Amino acid sequence: MAGGKLSARQKMINLMYLVFIAMMAMNMSKEVLSAFGLMEAKFSEANVVTTDMNEKLLANLETKAEEKPAEFAVAANKAKEISLVSDEFYKYLGTLKSDLLKKGKYEIDNETGKLPFEAMDKTDLLDEAWFTGDRLTKKGEEVMAKINNYKARVKEIIGDDVKYTKAIENFEKRFSTEKVANKDGKEIDWLDYNFKGFPAIASFTKLTAMQNDVKVTEANMFNVFLGNTLDEAVSLKNYTAIVIADKSAFFAGEKFQGKVVLGKYANVTPTGMSIAGSAVNLENAIDSTGAARLDFNVGSVGEHEIDGSFTFLEDGKPLDIPIKGNYVVVPRPNSATISADKMNVVYRGVSNPMTISFAGVPDNKVTASAAGLNRASGMGKYTMVPTSGREVTINVTATLDDGSKVSDKAVFRIKDIPKPTGKIVGQSDGKLPRNNVEIGKVEAVLEDFDFDLPLTVTSFKFKVPGQPSVTCSGNRLNAAAKSALRKAKRGATVQIFDIKSRSTGPVIKPATPAVIELSN
Questions:
Q1: Cβ contact 1:14 at 8 Å
Q2: Phi then psi for 132, rounded to 5 degrees?
Q3: CB atoms within 10 A of CB 272
Q4: Are the beta carbons of 408 and 480 closer than 8 angstroms?
Q5: What is the distance between the terminal CA atoms of the chain, rounded to a whole angstrom?
Q6: How does pLDDT run along the chain (520 residues), one tens digit per residue?
Q7: Contact 405, 332 (CB under 8 A)
Q8: Which residues contact 184 (CB under 8 A, 6 or more apart)?
Q9: In 3-state terms, what secondary structure has residue 370?
Q10: Cβ contacts of residue 70 below 8 Å, gap of 6+?
Q11: Is the dihedral angle over the CA atoms 492, 498, 503, 508 positive or is it negative?
Q12: Please, are residues 346 and 373 in contact by the beta-carbon 8 Å criterion?
């Protein structure tokens, strides 16, 4: 642009172009600086809220320590120590922020209460204070020492108790000062990577974010102390919630009736057991947990009681524990359960997964038949690929234990694959930059369709207002379509229509058009 002999007019145009680029760079820089400022304000607000929450958590622990010192005193003392070291480090980070403002001569606006974000673009303030060549200055070494000292003191307070292991792992990740790989793969010292060469507002925001990490650490530790102490104080981990139903079977429409109790499973071997007056062979009935398995013929249809006793040896004497229970015998099944796994219809040309079963009958004694229906792997699993018609009937037959057979059937509607939605760059309508449309990929998407049926666009038509339609093969604009696109005005609406696609199975209808407004 600067080479060769140029006319005075061309030189003026070139100069204006350079000025325009510089103005754009300045505007972008201001936007970035303002973004950092907004982030800093959010962190500051969060710190205020978290500080208030932490004070309440600490007060709660102190109150519990007074009420139950044996259970909460240690936890409360640890929390106080964490609070002290965290407050000390938090204030130190605050002095680093104050020094940064003084060096840059930045002042908070009295009216807005905000920092001059857009003016805080200096990158040499911390560079000169913390770094000298490839090494750290005394101030830089002090910063690293303060961070590492805070980490060490927190871990010392927490101690080696295994129940705090996860909290320490999260703390280590939050305050990790390990070297960081830059974009070229070179490992850079943590302080260098995070603060060297950054605008003042970026460094100021990072220091506020570190203060937020301190507050989050306090909150996490306080909750850990409080939660673990409560668990130990009222632990019921050795108990199990056991549901005891009033009977072992219920009919459809009945209310469930029973109770829930806390109990323990005792691995104690009994010395005797009887059910309905008959002794049970313990050698075969008792498992490794001390549970006894019942095995007897059920009665007729209706409700029956289980009556017996468990005998244990305690203090050298037999102890009988009554066994009370009941069960319900229901009639043999005479109807099948047939359902489509994904919807109440089946789709033409695709593999529809289905589950077919007969209540109370093993899967190997159930047969199902219909046009396009085939067995799949899994209990009661089938696939159906309907081809013609609007309905399909599935007939099911089950063989009962006595050799008799029962049957049932169900009718399903057959629907065609829905029309896909046309998209470009993932959008079916809205605004897109011209360049995105030019290089974008046209797609046909089956939205809200429960089957995995990928579609490949084979052709489409492209229309620009005032230009003839262009037919494109494949899924991207061809040269003629791109030429028409370049002639379109900003704000013009272009259409991509007659989008044809193919699948691995059924024939697919043309997709709905994509209508895009050019944003530039």
A1: yes
A2: -140, 105
A3: 14
A4: no
A5: 25
A6: 444 555 565 556 556 555 444 444 444 466 666 777 778 778 888 888 889 988 988 888 888 888 777 778 888 898 899 999 999 999 999 999 888 888 888 887 777 777 777 778 887 888 888 988 888 999 999 999 999 999 999 999 888 776 677 888 888 888 899 988 887 888 889 988 888 888 888 888 889 889 999 998 898 888 888 775 433 433 444 456 666 666 665 545 556 677 766 666 665 667 777 777 778 777 777 776 567 777 777 766 666 777 888 777 654 578 788 877 777 666 566 666 666 665 678 888 888 898 888 876 778 889 999 999 999 988 889 999 998 889 999 999 998 767 788 899 888 999 988 899 999 999 999 999 999 999 999 999 998 888 888 899 999 999 999 999 999 999 999 999 999 999 999 999 999 999 999 988 888 899 999 999 999 8
A7: no
A8: none
A9: coil
A10: none
A11: positive
A12: no
Strand positions, DSSP E, 140-239? 180-181, 187-188
The two three-digit tokens of residue 446, written as one number: 């089956």
Beta bridge pairs of residue 261: 242
Q: Do 425 and 443 contact (CB within 8 A), yes or no?
A: no
C-alpha–C-alpha distance, residues 386 and 396, integer Å: 17
The contacts of residue 376 (CB under 8 Å, 6+ apart) are 353, 382, 383
| Token couple for 417 | 């694959």
Task: Provide φ and ψ at 240, rounded to 5°.
Answer: -130, 140
Distance (Å, whole) CA 313 – CA 268: 10
The Cα 206–Cα 191 span in angstroms is: 11
E strand or H helix at 383: strand 381-384
Say if pTM beats, i.e. exceeds, 0.90.
Answer: no
Q: What is the CA radius of gyration of the chain?
A: 38
